[in-house]
Amino acid sequence: MLELEVKVGDLRVPERLLLGPGPNGIEPRVLQAMAMPTVGHLDPAFIEIMNETSALLRYVFQTKNELTIPVSGTGSAGMDCVLSNLIEEGDEVVVAVCGLFGERMVDIAERCGARVELARAPWGRMVEPDEVRKALSRLKRPKLIALVHAETSTGVMQPIEEISSICKEVGALLVVDCVTSLSGAPVLVDEWGVDAAYSGTQKCLSCPPGLSPVTLNERARKVIHERRSKPKSWYLDLTMVERYWGGERFYHHTAPVNMIYGLREALRIVAEEGLEQRWRRHALNAKAFIAGCEAMGLEIFAQEGYRLPSLITVKVPQGVDELSVRKYLLSEFNVEIGGGLGELKGKIWRFGFMGYNSKRKNVELALAALASALSALGRPTSASEAIAAADEVYREARA
Amino acid sequence: MLELEVKVGDLRVPERLLLGPGPNGIEPRVLQAMAMPTVGHLDPAFIEIMNETSALLRYVFQTKNELTIPVSGTGSAGMDCVLSNLIEEGDEVVVAVCGLFGERMVDIAERCGARVELARAPWGRMVEPDEVRKALSRLKRPKLIALVHAETSTGVMQPIEEISSICKEVGALLVVDCVTSLSGAPVLVDEWGVDAAYSGTQKCLSCPPGLSPVTLNERARKVIHERRSKPKSWYLDLTMVERYWGGERFYHHTAPVNMIYGLREALRIVAEEGLEQRWRRHALNAKAFIAGCEAMGLEIFAQEGYRLPSLITVKVPQGVDELSVRKYLLSEFNVEIGGGLGELKGKIWRFGFMGYNSKRKNVELALAALASALSALGRPTSASEAIAAADEVYREARA
Q1: Minimal-distance CA residue of chain B relative to A62
Q2: Could you tell me if A371 and A239 lie in one domain?
Q3: Is-contact A303 A350, C-beta < 8 A?
Q4: Closest residue of A to B191, CA-based?
């Protein structure tokens, strides 16, 4: 018999304030819900919970789509699931790429055997609809256009409606990644004519990571039902998953019961607040944080006018070591923020104020802590102007 | 704006005693661990938790394999992950099939583009090693042999060692599904020469569903690293997942942090008890339950000598309605058991005594409740002989 290599003690976790790209701002009520006794995945009581979760997701996605469910994996599972169910070998697709998550979509579409044309923008800017038109013009029969509504790597929010019109013109499906925007900014699946969308639980929904809400309209569903070949992933095969979530309750895989308890509670909290109020709250706190940063002489990375209210990207000033600032915030304040990914490594910080954590207290703490860190690390910065600038935003909002 | 369709109240879940095929017997300590505050998936504190979880999994799998991690999905995600990473278009594989989960492996292998030969046994029996030899003889260069150690649909435990020797002879990889056996019966990955194995959390590990522990040895890992093509699923691509779990901590997808808290606690409880004691406990409780069933005149479905200690299949007697019995147990006792799947629908019950729920109290309650249900539904059955037979097993064990 092999013995255990190490001694493993009681679970102890530090109490971080999560102000990074996610997980972010977990609701205490959600953690309590997750600790409720597990029931069977075919229990009549659980089936009611599944129905309620789907209804809540429809509200949050602003859709009437019947097929609106949490996929049993984290946000990237939703991306993989939606794309690999819709795309078959030889299909032509356009992906709008202006950051890491657009690139990930390309990788997935290529694994599905698609011919992929890119509509590009530099990281930090949104993709112009004209770029989408150009990419489409290189294809004979484009099946779908995929884009990221909330590019978590750059902090950019991509406008959807004009690209949706282009989709209608060419008869392509529109697939939207709203992992970092759902419930933090308007995501209007039906009104915008989005055919399929997916999200994650650990961003503005304020639930731990582990599930990926997805929604597909009847047009997208028909495409899946009329596939010539089975989707490559058995686990993410929506034609089977929908038989479990639909009236049939056909056993596919064992649903992550306690995670679904948590998601249901998280969505209920969104509904209690109301989506429009929640969007306003995120927008206000983002505005205050940006004002504070600018008062400190910092620059925002994402293109003006197209900034996410849930995730703000800040350029690292000349001469400041990006990682040292994050380490300082973590060790001195127990505050987690994000660094840059890919080509932005070392160049930006990513501050998330999502769901439960999108509040004035956190905005002003983040500004104060950032000023302290910069001062401690060789760039003397006074917090007072930053705080005053943020205060002014809140004052105006109340007026 | 679309409004919420339904009113969703506070989360209320019935307190079921889960004695079915899983989820089964969740440890209260695990639920508490899952409710701990979420930290970031790249937090130094979480990295320590990941390392401990891998070390604990190595002990439970009885392996020194470095690549031993929980995949971010339920048990079927582990099956999909292991097979779709090891198999490429055109590969030849043998799958041993004697139940639903063997059939699922065939489906997945075919989606990967494999040529699949079956080694079959009737549902309820184990697959004879000779059948594996025959299947192999129909192939030129078999790459792997996949089999289910614990066939959850039939209650059969498949011996591994002889088939492992056959694998060695032909130079094929051995892939083993131990979803329903891990920690409930011996699973000796290194000693048996298993190249890759996967399991689920919601069976004998007594953690809610949501993760799938997998382990691959260096031989299997090399096969993955030397693939000619990328695995079809981005989400389950082990070459990327291992860079997150390994020393690099390269971001792939956001790990389900709180589920991993739960798994770590569940594994710690296994280590506290000790694997050998845990296997003995499962074997004893299964023996007592079987003795009780037989004393009631019921027949066990799975082949004698090859029965799982964690999941016992009982034939539905002539004239008894299978579903009515399960409904009676659920409504009168809050006890969940499982029915038959596929060709066994209506023909068997599946009783699970796994992990936390493998205890005398539950065995005797299940016998008493089953006797009551049968009596109420037209087959007068006395509990006293069943209880006496089970008692006798426990008495002998103490002697």
Answers
A1: B2
A2: no
A3: no
A4: A1
Same domain, B178 and B222: yes
B52 chain-A contacts, CB cut-off 8 A: 6, 8
- What's the domain range around B94? 28-272
Chain A: residue nearest B253 by CA? A76
The interface pTM score, or ipTM, of the predicted complex is 0.97
Paired strand residues for B146 = B95, B175
What residues of chain A lie within 8 A of the CB of B32, using their CB?
Answer: 35
Q: Dump pLDDT digits (tens) for B234-286.
A: 999 999 999 999 988 889 999 999 999 999 999 999 999 999 999 999 999 99
- Is A284 found in the same domain as A261? no
The count of structural domains within chain B is 2
* A79 and A151 part of one domain: yes
Q: What is the pLDDT of residue B247?
A: 82
| Chain B nearest C-alpha distance from A189 (Å) | 11
Q: What is the CATH number of the domain that holds B308?
A: 3.90.1150.10
**Among A253, A272, A291, residue at a domain's last position:** A272
Cα B251 from Cα B244, distance rounded (Å): 6
Q: Which of A79, A230, A254, A356 to mutate to test the interface with B (most CBs of B within 10 A)?
A: A254
Q: For residues B79 and B370, give the distance between their C-alpha atoms in angstroms, rounded to a whole number.
A: 33
Is the same domain home to A100 and A135? yes
pLDDT at B94: 98
DSSP, res B196: E
Q: Write down the residue that tokens 């011919």 correspond to.
A: A115
List C-alpha distances in Å: B296 to B80, B303, B344, B380. Answer: 40, 19, 21, 10
* Predicted confidence (pLDDT) per residue in B333-365, tens digit: 999 999 999 999 999 999 999 999 999 999 999
> Which of A32, A36, A209 comes nearest B13 by C-beta?
A36
The pTM of this model reads 0.97
Residues of chain A with C-beta less than 8 angstroms from the C-beta of B336: 39-40, 43
Stated as kind and residue range, the H or E segment containing A143 is strand A142-148
Number of Cβ atoms within 10 Å of the Cβ of A38: 27
Answer whether residue B359 is part of any domain.
yes
Statement to judge: residues B364 and B331 lie in one domain: yes
* Pairing, β B142-148 against β B173-177: parallel
Q: Where does a domain end: A237, A272, A307? A: A272
Task: Tell me if A41 and B236 make a contact (CB, 8 A cut-off).
Answer: no
